[in-house]
Amino acid sequence: MSARVLVVDDIETNRRLLEARLSAEYFEVLQAADGHECLKLAQSHEPDLILLDVMMPGIDGFETCRRLKAEPATRHIPVVMVTALDQRSDRIRGLEAGADDFLTKPVDDVALFARVRSLLRLKLVMDELRLRHRERECEAEPDAPLQGGAVLVVGADAPGAERLAARLCEPFTARAVSDPREAAYLAGEFDLMIVDVSNPRFDGLRLCARVRSDAATRQLPILAVVEADDRRTMVRALDLGVNDVIARPIDAGELAARARTQIRRKAYADTLRDRLDESLEMAVKDPLTGLFNRRYALSRLNQALDGLAAGGEPVSAALIDIDHFKRINDTFGHATGDAVLKGFSARLMSELRAVDIAARFGGEEFILIFPGAQVREAMEAAERVRAAVAREPFPAPEGREAILVTLSAGVAEARPGDDVEDLLARADSALYEAKASGRNQVVDAKKKAA
Ligand SMILES: [Mg+2]
């Protein structure tokens, strides 16, 4: 995994040392000698990770971190604070300033690279999400909410799990569990899972791997509890995809700070994902009927025609028009007209295969695309739709007679070499024929031409 790392330290030897080790692992390294230079380089060079010394003249590491995290352009860069002091109060101060992790000087290579890999993996995912978010022109990025959350605490046995859960107080709600199967089953309902991987009688890492690989819980942050001197387990846990580790003996303040960081990150990623889903849907769907929109239908039709031209399977299309729709609007008003369009779309959908595509083409015009279908099958499907619509009238406003709706349709099968206009022109002329010869019918473009 190659990435750009910004090393910030007021002592040149320290910077050189970290640079040599990171370069040896093929990381690109930038250096800054103080907090101000760090902020400038973070803006101009967009590093993927910042290793930040705590003790520096001018603005110290805590303040630098706070400013990085307050700035939208640099907020998402993971920050690892590097400190000579292994004071828990410092760790908490750092986590509260928004630091993603801590390393103690002298920096241990194995620990360094395990942390760096883990944070870079996370950043890749977040960058991808943010990029797609921007491409889809979503609203401004959500602000990360700061709150508690539901935490699943998994220990080797019930008393151990309870003790661990008891270290988490307000605003978190903790549930203690000691059966890994129960934990895997429950995991999807929580904002964070804390797993004790320090007990040799209990294979917590296996649980972490399982939760990570299951689609339903892949996004759940995991915080692993390790023995302070057990570097091997710590590295294995991080490489397995655990988001963070905390060492025994556990300090309640540090536990809360780390839990908060993970939950905040998850909430942020979830919001991005939700908005992305929404905007993806909005880009392809017609808001009134829930069918696809014209643009999407045309692009799918194009794809299918390309496939046919390349020797692939056939494709047919039907153009549909609701008969005398203007009369419905004029007689009952637009609200009823809209309700008819919705009900009409639902009936239409109920007669189609899962692979067929139904789109609102505009107004009261619709298109159906039948991938893999020759004209005979497409005619049958369009006929089913016609019958389903005509079979039963649609509800009218209170006290008025239900509205009988019919449709006319023209069906055409694509010929190799057709472009979208060719195919739709034939379907449209069949539709015209259907209208001209009395409506409420489906016409095959080939028969019409013959
Ligand atoms: Mg220093």
UniProtKB/TrEMBL annotation:
SMART domains the UniProt entry points to: GGDEF (SM00267), REC (SM00448)
GO MF entry, a single one: diguanylate cyclase activity
Class of enzymatic activity (EC top level): transferase
Domain Response regulatory: 4-120, 150-263
Catalytic activity: 2 GTP = 3',3'-c-di-GMP + 2 diphosphate
GO BP of this protein: cell adhesion involved in single-species biofilm formation; negative regulation of bacterial-type flagellum-dependent cell motility; phosphorelay signal transduction system
Keywords, in A-Z order: Phosphoprotein
GGDEF domain sequence ranges: 313-447
Documented EC number(s): 2.7.7.65
Record-listed 4-aspartylphosphate modification sites: D53, D196
Record-given protein name: diguanylate cyclase
Species of origin: Alkalicaulis satelles
